[in-house]
Amino acid sequence: MAEQTKTLTKPQEQYQRLAGVLTSESMKKQIAAALPKNITPERLTRIVMSTVQRNPKLLECEPKSFLACVMGCAALGLEPDGLLGQAYLVPFWSSKDGGLICTLIPGYQGLMKLARQSNEIASIDAHPVRVGDVFEYRYGADPSIHHIPAERPYTVENGELKWSEGWKPGAITHFYAVAKMRDGGVGFVVMPTWEVDQIRDESQGYQYAIKNKRDSPWTTDYDRMGCKTAIRRLCKYLPASVEDNRLHRAVAIDERADRGIDQDVGSFVDLEALPVLEPMPADAPAPTQAEEGRRMKLGGDKNKPEPGSAG
């Protein structure tokens, strides 16, 4: 009996076309030319395809914007798996274009990774400051910062440690980011929560989430988003080597995504040389409920994804 040929759905067909483009020799050569030596084109391709499986809405994005974001990840050396927090590929509804575009969102860990890989920076970190912490800082000719987090009270009874019940961490008052340079110098920024909240309130992704009563990283992961905001500001002032300006590029495209404007990935990626990926057919069915359940929460809802926003 002849073997029956399985009929593919439109999303499955588009997924196969995407896999074919990403694994083509021309695309592999472009990715390899942009990637740092510690990441292979095959690894980045696997990560991107896994991301698409978790978030099928990416298949509906304008093809060139999607491939541009993939090349942007390659040029920055960030893995967009959404798990390690280095970068995110997020569908973004563009009222200007009347459809979905793919947006590259550098994550909290991604910015710190790029900073640590700089020839100028030895370490970088960020923390929230809470009521009850010991926290002092000053700017000027002799800047300094000092932070001792408050700990949960405890007692020792008969050699057994007992933590105080009913204790909760204090409310967050500030976020700060601090970097130590290889020459021994230290740079830092401190942001009170009112200033961080102003930036949050101007974010296109946060505005969309509030308007449409959707989850936002700002509501589910406020600590992480506040730390990222402080790191992003600090990175603006950190020195960049002539050979490696990936950190400042990542900060720039992250801020542009936050404001809902074109990320201009083409300023450091050759978009004209990208292979052609045909757009998703207009009559393609929406992802199934099971597929929706596998999507990352940062991808928005299945009718109109929220604008780019991530940790």
Can you put this structure into words, describing what you see?
This protein is globular. 39% of the residues are buried. It has one domain. A hairpin with a 2-residue loop joins strand 6 and strand 7. Helix content is 38%, strand content 20%. The chain has eleven helices and nine strands. Helix 2 packs parallel to helix 4 and helix 5 packs parallel to helix 9. The strands form four sheets. Strands 3-8-9 form a three-stranded antiparallel β-sheet. A two-stranded antiparallel sheet has the order 1-2. Strands 4-5 form a two-stranded antiparallel ribbon. By secondary structure, it is α+β, with helices and mostly antiparallel strands.
How many beta-strand runs? 9
Order of helices and strands: HHHHEEHEEEEEEEHHHHHH
Largest sheet: 3 strands, antiparallel
Indicate the overall shape: globular
Q: What is the CA-atom radius of gyration, in angstroms?
A: 22 Å
Label this structure with key terms.
311 residues, alpha+beta, 3-stranded antiparallel β-sheet, two-stranded antiparallel sheet, 11 helices, disordered C terminus
Summarize the entry for a quick read.
With 311 residues, the protein is of the alpha+beta class. The protein is 38% helix and 20% strand.
Question: How are the secondary structure elements laid out?
Answer:
Layout: H1 10-22, H2 25-34, H3 41-54, H4 63-76, E1 87-94, E2 99-106, H5 108-116, E3 121-130, E4 134-138, E5 144-148, E6 154-157, E7 160-163, E8 172-181, E9 186-192, H6 193-202, H7 204-211, H8 217-220, H9 222-237, H10 246-258, H11 289-294
Antiparallel strand pairs: 1-2, 3-8, 4-5, 6-7, 8-9
Helix pairs in contact: 2-4, 5-9
